[in-house]
Amino acid sequence: MVDILTGIETRLKGRVSRYGALGLIVAIVALILDQISKHWILFGINLPVRQQIEVLPFFHLSMVWNDGVSFGLLGADGLGRWLLVLFSIVVSAFLVNWVRKVDKPWLAWSLGLVIGGAIGNAIDRIRFGAVVDFLDFSGLYFPWVFNIADACISIGVVMLIWEVFTTKESDPKV
Description:
Elements (H helix, E strand, L loop, with lengths): L1 H10 L6 H27 L2 H4 L1 E5 L2 E8 L12 H21 L5 H24 L2 E6 L8 E2 L1 H19 L8
Antiparallel strand pairs: 1-2, 2-3, 3-4
Helix pairs in contact: 1-2, 2-5, 4-5, 5-6
C-alpha cells in the first residue's frame, strides 16, 4: 500500500498529498463496493421482485427505494431529486478538494468514506430516481433500511467528528 501511495504521490506531486491519495483511494473503493452491491441486489438476486430475503433472524435483505435524504426523510422527486444530486456533487467536490491536502491518515479515511458514499447515492438518484437501500437490521430494533454508501457516510462522519474533538492544536501531525 505504501508503494501505491508513493507512486500516486509522485505522479500527482504538488496536487495531492500522500494521505490525500489514500483518501481518494478509499473513496474509489467505497464507491465501487457500493455500486457492486447495488448491482447484485437489483440484477443478481432480483430483490425488487423478491422484496425480502431472510439472511439471519435479525438481518434481512429488504428492497427499499429511498427518494428522500438519509433514512428516507424529506422525500424528494422531480426537482427535489435533482437538487439532492446537485447537493451531493457540490459536497463531494468540496470534500475532494479538502482530502487532496490532508496530512493525517484518519482524516483521509473519514473524508474518503464520505466522498465515496455521497457519489454512490448520487449515481443512484441519477440512474433510478431514488437510492437503492437493502440492508435491514430491524431484528435488532434498528428501524431504517440502508446501503453500503449510507454506512460509509455515517462511519466517515463519525470518524470526522472524532478527529475534530480529539485533535489538539498542539498535536503533532501523524
